[in-house]
What we know:
By secondary structure, the protein is mainly beta. The chain has a single domain, classed as CATH 2.40.50.140. Helices cover 9% and strands 42% of the residues. It has a 5-stranded mixed beta barrel. A hairpin with a 5-residue loop joins strand 2 and strand 3. The longest helix has 10 residues. The termini are far apart.
Amino acid sequence: MSSRSINKITLLGNLTRDPELKYTPNGTAVCTFSLATNRSWTTKEGKVVDEVQYHRVVAWQKLAELCSKLLSKGKKAYLEGRITYRDYIDKDGAQKHITEVVLEDFIAFYDGTKKPSDRTEKPEQSKNDNDLPDQEDQKTSTEPKKDHDEDINPDDIPF
């Protein structure tokens, strides 16, 4: 039997809130946000049913800082990462369980009506394909992926 395994998730959806960037006590950047994915189907009776799933996403280090700059509520984003499960005890002493996606890469999509926050445009300029950022600008860096969970103490996470 092979000892190889895969933990990979791919999501395409819209951010439900602005990314929240924080830093651990040792200075490591951590960014959290939620992504909504939708699916719909038609029942035997002809009724259309819509379903929404919400995904908690966490990014670390440079990727966290990029998320806070390039993503915002309502934006469409393509995400790649892995699923993790954590347990913690809340302020009331109750045991809580969290499922989250640890982000490894993302692409931010722009609808042509809004630019990334670090770009400016005069209101009278027309919007066309030449005004949109290149795909290269939207893709995150291709630095080697590192597993950061072992370096971070869950007690250091500020949320």
